[in-house]
Amino acid sequence: MTTIRTYTYALILELKNAGRYSTAGIYTSTIKSFLQFAKRQELTFSEVTSSMIKEYEEYLLQKGCRHNTLSTYH
Known about the structure:
By secondary structure, the protein is an all-alpha fold. Helices cover 70% and strands 0% of the residues. It is flat, with a radius of gyration of 13 Å.
């Protein structure tokens, strides 16, 4: 099964190849942040729950992110 990290890095490569470096940078920051929050380098899509996403949102707020920043990471 494909992990979130594997899928995301493949997508980032596609974006870079298409010249969409800004979007690739946002995706790179987002996946690094999410995996740091999860304290794991590999997660499958089935392991991500709505409560995990809510906890991630709280994590970002506690780190000082503003709501505009949260919308980038979602």
